[in-house]
């Protein structure tokens, strides 16, 4: 445990929790005493009855009292105890007789629906009556919307409060805790992934929560899954670079409509919309930009400050199409061919894989540039519906690898095929790629997908989803901040991080 404490110190922790109940049952009280005395960081000593390995309930409680009394005697900075323990008469005497140690009283709140502010308020009042200096609530949440009353409690609680929502949908309880007045934030050590906890390294290097305050505007990516998103490593440094008081967080959302009807405050100022919500999110907007309305998908939603209305935009369309056009232009220049037509896509056969939100943006964009759009999607009916919307064509997905009416076509993958962790997959065999002049892949994790590698090997010009990501992110950042985006800074940042 001392080695872990040193590791935490190296990673920038201000405070560590020493979970004594997780130590081996053979650990003697003298070993625990040595640990407390040799601590190299301010510490929270905790002993949880529910997770103790002791077989006897009575023996567990005795061990708990012994450890916590030792921590109090040695003036460890914080001692955390269960509400049940703090309510015990013997512990009450120790609590009131302490010298410098601050007492954290904690309680676990079971899931089973959104906790009410009344229930949480009553629980906090009872816990505070034990003489606690700090209250800690560990809450099981089923959906990200279950966190709304927790943020309310953080804002209005009269006693220092720690709120930890358990599970992957609870991550923002830590990332947004400081904004709403949380006493401290937990992070996992050594880059270890723990559901509901950010890594300590991400807290120190990406989010830098020391810059967060009550006036910080909240932005985030609404997606499911959301772990692959690179948005936080782009937008957070860009906010700091431009001295804009904002934070950008991953938002694991199951029901997009419920999310937007729950988080209605002006502090939740803007959102990137990811898979699979780009189409459903249109109905959540009060207003939709004409381009996004025609596409039928939004990838950006802004809460307009003057009236709180949600306004939807689509920055995917121009980002992806302009990236493909620039690649075509560079290829022609490299071949000694100069073109003065409005768009190099005009007259080209544009083969699109995927008919979701990103696919719709590509389809409408390519059609607007004069391309002949042919759509393949595993759900053929969805492909036909999109083809009908743009006066294009749809063919069964099974026909994709044999489709070759001409050479020099454009291929755009707007599906999730090839995205991590399935990075060994490709939507089309390598041999079939010889018919394409330019191949674009909207997938950007990994940066160099199997599709792009194989396309380059057969001589096609390739366009990474990273380029689309940069361009759409620049558009989003302008909408988020109402100003110009630091293009050189963002481009350099993304290319270094991806």
UniProtKB/TrEMBL annotation:
Domain SDH C-terminal intervals: 465-495
Cross-referenced InterPro entries: Aldolase_TIM, Aminoacid_DH-like_N_sf, DHquinase_I, NAD(P)-bd_dom_sf, SDH_C, Shikimate_DH-bd_N, Shikimate_DH_fam, Shikm_DH/Glu-tRNA_Rdtase
Signal peptide span: none
GO molecular function, one term: shikimate 3-dehydrogenase (NADP+) activity
Top-level taxon of origin: Eukaryota
Xref: Pfam families: DHquinase_I, SDH_C, Shikimate_DH, Shikimate_dh_N
Gene Ontology terms: biological process: chorismate biosynthetic process; shikimate metabolic process
Residue span, Quinate/shikimate 5-dehydrogenase/glutamyl-tRNA reductase domain: 338-415
Domain spans labelled Shikimate dehydrogenase substrate binding N-terminal: 221-301
Stated name of the protein: Shikimate dehydrogenase
Protein's organism: Acer saccharum (Sugar maple)
């Amino acid at each position: 445990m001392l080695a872990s404490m040193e590791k935490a110190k190296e990673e920038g922790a201000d405070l560590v929790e020493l979970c004594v109940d997780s130590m081996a049952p053979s650990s003697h009280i003298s070993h625990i005493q040595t640990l407390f005395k040799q601590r190299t960081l301010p510490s929270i000593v905790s002993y949880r009855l529910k997770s103790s390995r002791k077989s006897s309930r009575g023996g567990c409680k005795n061990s708990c009292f012994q450890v916590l009394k030792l921590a109090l005697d040695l003036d460890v900075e914080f001692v955390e105890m269960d509400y049940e323990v703090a309510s015990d008469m013997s512990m009450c005497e120790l609590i009131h007789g302490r010298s410098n140690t601050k007492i954290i009283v904690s309680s676990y709140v079971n899931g089973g629906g959104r906790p009410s502010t009344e229930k949480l308020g009553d629980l906090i009042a009872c816990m505070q009556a034990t003489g606690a200096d700090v209250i800690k609530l560990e809450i099981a949440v089923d959906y990200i919307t279950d966190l709304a009353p927790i943020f309310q409690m953080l804002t209005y609680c009269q006693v220092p409060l720690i709120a930890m929502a358990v599970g992957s949908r609870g991550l923002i309880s830590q990332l947004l805790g400081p904004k709403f007045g949380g006493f401290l934030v937990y992070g996992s050590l050594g880059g270890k992934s723990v559901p509901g906890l950010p890594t300590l390294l991400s807290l120190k290097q990406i989010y830098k929560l020391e810059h967060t305050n009550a006036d910080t505007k909240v932005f985030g990516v609404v997606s499911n899954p959301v772990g692959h998103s690179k948005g936080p490593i782009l937008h957070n440094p860009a906010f700091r670079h431009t001295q804009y008081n904002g934070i950008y967080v991953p938002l694991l959302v199951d029901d997009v409509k419920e999310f937007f009807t729950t988080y209605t405050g002006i502090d939740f100022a803007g959102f990137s919309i990811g898979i699979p919500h780009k189409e459903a999110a249109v109905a959540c907007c009060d207003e939709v930009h004409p381009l996004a309305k025609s596409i039928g998908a939004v990838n950006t939603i802004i809460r307009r400050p003057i009236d709180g209305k949600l306004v939807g935009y689509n920055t995917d369309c121009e980002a992806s199409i302009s990236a493909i056009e620039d690649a075509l232009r560079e290829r022609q220049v490299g071949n000694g061919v100069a073109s003065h037509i409005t768009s190099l896509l005009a007259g080209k056969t544009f083969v699109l894989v995927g008919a979701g939100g990103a696919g719709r943006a590509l389809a409408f964009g390519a059609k607007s540039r004069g391309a002949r759009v042919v759509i393949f999607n595993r759900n053929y009916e969805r492909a036909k519906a999109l083809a009908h919307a743009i006066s294009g064509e749809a063919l069964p997905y099974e026909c994709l690898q044999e489709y070759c009416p001409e050479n020099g076509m454009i291929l755009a993958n707007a599906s999730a095929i090839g995205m991590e962790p399935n990075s060994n997959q490709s939507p089309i065999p390598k041999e079939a790629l010889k018919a394409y002049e330019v191949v674009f892949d909207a997938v950007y994790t990994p940066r160099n997908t199997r599709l792009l590698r194989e396309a380059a090997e057969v001589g096609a010009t390739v366009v990474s989803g990273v380029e689309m990501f940069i361009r759409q992110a620049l558009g989003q950042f302008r909408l988020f901040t109402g100003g110009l985006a630091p293009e050189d800074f963002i481009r350099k940042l993304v290319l270094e991080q991806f």
